[in-house]
Design goal:
Order of helices and strands: EHHHEEEEEEHEEHEHHHEEEHEHHEE
Shape: globular
Strand content: 15-25%
Number of domains: 2
Number of strands: 16
Oligomer: single chain
Bound molecules: zinc ion
Number of helices: 11
Strand order of the largest sheet: 1-2-3-4-8-10
Radius of gyration: 24 Å
Distance between the termini: 22 Å
Amino acid sequence: MIIKPREMPKYLMQLEALASRLPINQIKKEDVVKQLINQRTGFNGERSINFPLIFLPQNDYFILHNLRLLYQPNYYFQIDTLILSGKFFLIIEVKNYFGTLIFESMFDQLIRVTDEKEEGFENPILQVERQSRQLKSYLSTHFFSTVPIENLVVISSPRTILKNPSNSPLISEKIIHSSKLPTKIIELENKYPNNIIATKKIMSISEKLLKEHTPDTKNILEKFHIPESDILTGVRCTKCFHLPMKRIKGGWNCPACNQISINAHFSALKDYLLLISNSITNKEARHFLHLNSDSTTKRLLKSMNLPYLGENKGRKYRLNFLENK
Ligand SMILES: [Zn+2]
């Protein structure tokens, strides 16, 4: 059963908001769009293993996607997918590489060949083995668990050609296409026929892992060194994406396509949350939404039933759209 579903990573949402709110000639725009494409492709790749995992027996396997756990002070480790069973735990790292991948065991290197271009990457086996060691030490600190930890690198696209020129058994065992995942899990079941942990214990481990999961909260403007003043403000049209819409009585009107929307400010405030801050004052909201009166701004913010702190001009509304309620 799925304990933690795969959700769109916050960083991807931040990149989408940022790319849509940078002027075309902003110096970092190209970097942001490049990162956005990378992250989107990665996320789509990760989703490609959802389907083969459907076939696992619901009561024997507990699945957690996108886990980020504190390993040492200020150091987190991340796992794309963790599968817990009474017999073994399995770490899956999904790679969304296209082209031909040559796994060179002599130098532990991955060479990707696309359109005559060659690029080198770290061998992903090194990465999953590092994750296995981290998880092992994490589990032994928190649960005294001695369950075997297996790991796999899953290549999401069936069109990616995999080559193992030195015929390394480790490479052919650890690197698979996503369609082979169910067969691989059956092989692991045969390798570990005995149940070592009771289902109740696995449930408590997965609940604890879920609780310990810490989403990354990096400030994206700081990461890209973009001043807040470069961010385009205003409410975006829900139909033609024109920025900004104009406030009219009871809603928003798009000067480009004449679309009327009642709630278009929601997604603008979500962008504010992703890019600038998780709280907003009346003055800041008035500026960001292009409103011309304090009372309209106050009415809009109040109508959203946001929790707030403080009174009058100092009141800060908490933008809680992404919090688990
Ligand atoms: Zn429009």
